[in-house]
Amino acid sequence: MFEALPIAFPLISGIVLGMGVLWMQAPFFVLARRSVGLIDILISDLEEDDKFAMVNKATKATVVALGKTLAFLAVVLGATGWAYWYLPGMFWADTLSTGWRLGVFTAGTVLPFLYPQKKKSAYGAMAQLFHHLILDHYHIGKALLRRQIKGVEHPVEEGAVSAVLVTGLARAGTTALVRTLSERGPFRSLDYSNMPVLLAPRLWAKFYRPSRKEQQERAHGDGIKVGLASVEALEEYFFKVVTSDRFVKKDRLVRHELSTEENEQYRKYFKSLCKPDEVYLAKNNNAVLRLPSLLAQNPDMKVFVLVREPLEHAYSLYKQHLKFSKEQAEDPFVLAYMNWLGHHEFGQGQLSFDLNVLGAERDRKKLDFWLERWVEYYSYAQGLCGVEFIRYEEFLARPSQVVERIAKATGMTINAENVPVFEKTPEVPSGFSPDLIRMAQKVYAEIE
User: Could you tell me the pTM of the whole model?
Assistant: First the structure.
């Protein structure tokens, strides 16, 4: 036993240090977020009195976080030093040479990192922290946006199309259509490689140049492969920042108008993403909340709304809700990620559109809830002017014709040849209100 002690003490001290480094992750991350939060307030354009109070509160929180981090560090270093220098002397075990002691100590520091840990998220701890530091802080986002659009001008040009917006209730086929268009026309869109610095992609591209190969099936489990080059609904973060989330309420998402200044920022933002001969292509399922003012101020924007057979559509939403609710319970970062991007279509963060036609069903585990969401959305959407509807089923069966139709509507050159037909097996759900499905089918039949 006593022969093992000279090795045991430096080994234990190394293990203590290694475990301490791992345990320090939590207080360090809190300190990082508190510090960046303080910076976010300092660079804000808030009223001075409000700003002063918020700075005081954030400063206290940062100092407390710093104190906890330093105290934890002191405990870890104290315990390490105690096990390394003091304990061997107490047990007359201070017999190893300096070189051997350092070697055993180093081995001990490595051991905690070799212990297998269950992976709880697709994103590592540092990646999650970076997303929080960038996406949690809207004033930093606004500063990044100002840098992105500095010197950019984008006046409306008569007869030209500068942007194409694809929208619809989630699970209507918007992703498949946008990806088809992006591969076949002179379009530019936001993609996953722009995450998380969505408001300054040009700046971010100077530091981050990942492989853009397709990687894996997306989280929806619908067979669509995604990679860092995949177009996605990412522009909603822009609207969340410039409007300071004024349309996001506790229990719903409300309609709102874009101010002239906000719209001008939007035009400059999407223009900054495009090369001279490119057209901005966006997928945004929340666009219905601001479409009237968006269309009024952007006559050079074409909007296409996808509509899907209501029962199949509602059932798809229902299944996605159950799937993402489970994933978000297992990995809270999934919920944070979707909330940042304004993805409130399903899951624990689900928020319905308040379109003044809200139904009575509030149980998200019932199919009728999702049928009501369908009726609400498309009852409102069919009254919008300046949009063109595309049936999901038509796109699946005759995608080339749909692409040709979009090319004609926009006046753009889009390759519509040999667009692959999408294979989908219809599902027949049960447990829905006959009256509700009749109402939905009536709306569906009226949409042209």
Answer: 0.89
**Which has more pLDDT, 273 or 228?**
273
Distance CA 279, CA 212 (A): 21
Are 273 and 231 in contact by the 8 Å Cβ rule? The answer is: no
DSSP one-letter string for 44-110? S---HHHHHHHHHHHHHHHHHHHHHHHHHHHHHHHHHHIIIIIHHHHTT-TTS-HHHHHHHHHHHHH
Q: Nearest 5°: phi and psi at 319?
A: -65, -40
In the sheet with 163-168, reading across from the earlier edge strand, the strands are 187-188, 279-283, 163-168, 301-307, 387-391
Q: Tell me the angle at which helices 332-340 and 125-135 cross, rounded to the nearest 10 degrees.
A: 30
Inter-CA distances, 88 with 81, 105, 253, Å: 11, 13, 64
- Which residues are within 8 A (CB) of 330 and not within 5 positions of it... i.e. 6 or more apart? 120
123-128 LR contacts (CB < 8 Å, sep 24+): 123/333, 123/337, 125/25, 125/29, 128/333
Cβ-proximal residues to 247 (8 Å cutoff; 6+ apart), any chain: 239, 253, 254, 255, 256, 289, 290
In whole angstroms, what is the distance from residue 284 CA to residue 232 CA? Answer: 9
CA separation for the pair 333, 103 (Å, rounded): 39
Identity (one letter) of the amino acid at 61? A
How far apart are the C-alpha atoms of 17 and 23, rounded to whole Å? Answer: 10
The stretches of 186-259 forming alpha helices (DSSP H) are 201-205, 236-242
Alpha carbon 91 to chain centroid, angstroms: 56
pLDDT tens figures, 343-376: 999 999 999 999 976 566 678 999 999 999 999 9
User: What are the tokens at 307?
Assistant: 């509509």
**pLDDT over 50 at 218, yes or no:** no
Phi and psi based region of residue 88 (left: phi greater than 0; alpha: psi -120 to 50; beta: remaining) = alpha
Could you tell me which of 392, 419, 381 has the C-alpha nearest to residue 403?
419
Express each pLDDT in 53-111 by its tens digit: 999 999 999 999 999 999 999 999 999 988 887 777 676 556 667 787 788 888 889 88
User: Of all helices (H) and strands (E), which one includes residue 167?
Assistant: strand 163-168
User: Helices then strands (H, E): number in the chain?
Assistant: 18, 9
CA dist 67 → 31, 55, 61 (Å): 9, 18, 10
